């Protein structure tokens, strides 16, 4: 069919056949160019469509046909790809019109499947399974309509198709009634399992028997199923014996302990001596999985000799079982633990140690006359064996008792953590948390290996280790022989460089997800190391990542971790320095990207800190971004405004609320970007519907107010603890009484989260800083050079700036040692913290002295 398009013409150039002996010297080069110039150019049309008009005509279906009629038509006269599409759509047809689908479509599918190809067969098996899972029809209807089709295609000549139908049948057996299973599946199975049947038929019979063992009573299994099982265990083909051997585990669970001992165990013993290596391997793995069903006599008299035989032959004769033996060794040793003599216990432990170094030494247990050069396949096998040993290491700690770890297993642990192959170290990194839990008070022994894995050359190992890094570090800091801070001091010297090295390696790699995950896990460090160490080694690094990294998830992870560090920082001078940098370098940064990250950081501040803290330090800097020259920044701010408003409390924050409303009005009047204006209007409607919480508790906001009040109390207690520590340093003569106070504060801080009723603290007066701005107009008129760039040199060791404000303010009480910042050293704060001029005069001398000390 001509669609009005002109066929393109492509000029086809005949290729020049070049001899392998062609001379490309300068004398012959011009001759080849002349030959190229003599080539003829031939016009040759190129076919644009993949189908001819005749083929398109055959594929065209009348649009007026409904779904059922179209499916019948395509199955009857369509091409294979159309028929496959109908079969794939069968679950949908069953949902829409099950009666007509069963009456008209399913018989056609049954006819087509006799001659269908592999693709349609696989599609049909999946479709039938989907119909069963979706319960489109009753079980009775399903067994009547679909079961016969499944059984007919079960013995397809293609192994993949046969396995697909078998998976569907096994799922159907789970829901079929017993009588249907017995008549439709079990009875025909007697003939299908005979030697006269095909290999594929007997393999299918093995798997069906394993499934049927849990569907019938014991006497039926003993009379009708066990004779077939014995017959298939003695089959002439090793594939059938191996397959039936692996089903013995399911059969044993169905027949109980007594029949397992009398019927299954003798078959397993015989199969364990089979001439086929795959049969012996299946028998060994089935024995390990059935250990719990055997009593002590069976384990000592039957299972243990077999296991010892496997271990002896694995090095000398039968290396095929070596990988499986190394994988199940932990389960095997603990399953036979009660019957081991001390000599046998030591023998199995030495066998495990030998496997842990397999392939790393020239003497690896082989005969002396065997060639020492290992093939590539052997090396892969040995790596897998050592990997399995690393997987079983926690189980072997239980086997030797954690108290004996240092004497019995530490050298093996060291070798596995320093293994030259990445998969082995990766497995050790995954299991390190389990090892740490088992060692409990002896966890300090593996500290060096933790540092080694943190500094591993492979990022895969690092990624595996950091999954449980917070839990491991917590065990390291609290579970050692030394308790509390002493344990921390022991772990810090080489742990902190290892942590910083790990972060730098992740940052320089292309695997940003590993870097993001690591930064998220580093948020646990305030519970592990001291506040000063975090401040000097990690906090500034987080700020650098926020400003320089190019991956948004990494920047957000760094921002949240930085906020956590700020939340638990114990020194107000450091806190104010970080806040100042966040405002100056992010909120007032030259790059709009940094200003966007400032808004992300503010979201985390609102999540982690109290409302009063956010309003005190970040409310006005956030509102300042309403005048940002970049539309994307203003747009993101508009999305954030409802959260910002939720931090306000009336009547305390009435002035801030007025400034927020003024900013919104200016945006509505002055915004020129239509997208931003649309979002502003939508945000205004949302803000109007919001209810502001008041200073007093309300039922609607009770839970949120409780959480916020708890955050305020924790922030206040951190400040009080810092003040007490300073007083202790100044008054060393009264160290005993002050240490008691510090201990009481720490205990109070730890138990704070468990209190159900929270009362606002009145123990600490809060002389706040001078507000930077009187109103929002002054904010908008000031340039970025003078808006928030004032430094805070007046923060000294003796000065104290509480995190909260009106929540903890008292008019009659005042704690000595509380100095405030003078007007010469302001930081961006909101108008909710009004300074007291009298207190400023009284504390001026102390403030100036603190400023000198800080300089």
UniProtKB/TrEMBL annotation:
Q: What is its main location?
A: cytoplasm
Q: Name one GO cellular component term.
A: cytosol
Which InterPro entries would you find in this protein's record? ARM-like, ARM-type_fold, HEAT_type_2, PPP4R4
Coiled coil segments of this chain: 704-741
- Is Methyltransferase there in the keyword field? no
GO molecular function terms attached to this record: protein phosphatase regulator activity
Q: Where is the composition biased (Basic and acidic residues)?
A: 844-855
Under Gene3D superfamilies, the record lists: Leucine-rich Repeat Variant
List where Polar residues composition bias occurs.
819-843
Spell out the residue ranges making up region: Disordered: 819-855
Any idea which UniProt keywords this protein has? Answer: Coiled coil, Cytoplasm, Phosphoprotein, Repeat
Q: Which SUPFAM superfamilies match?
A: ARM repeat (SSF48371)
According to its UniProt entry, the function of this protein is described as:
Putative regulatory subunit of serine/threonine-protein phosphatase 4.
**Name of the molecule in the record:** Serine/threonine-protein phosphatase 4 regulatory subunit 4
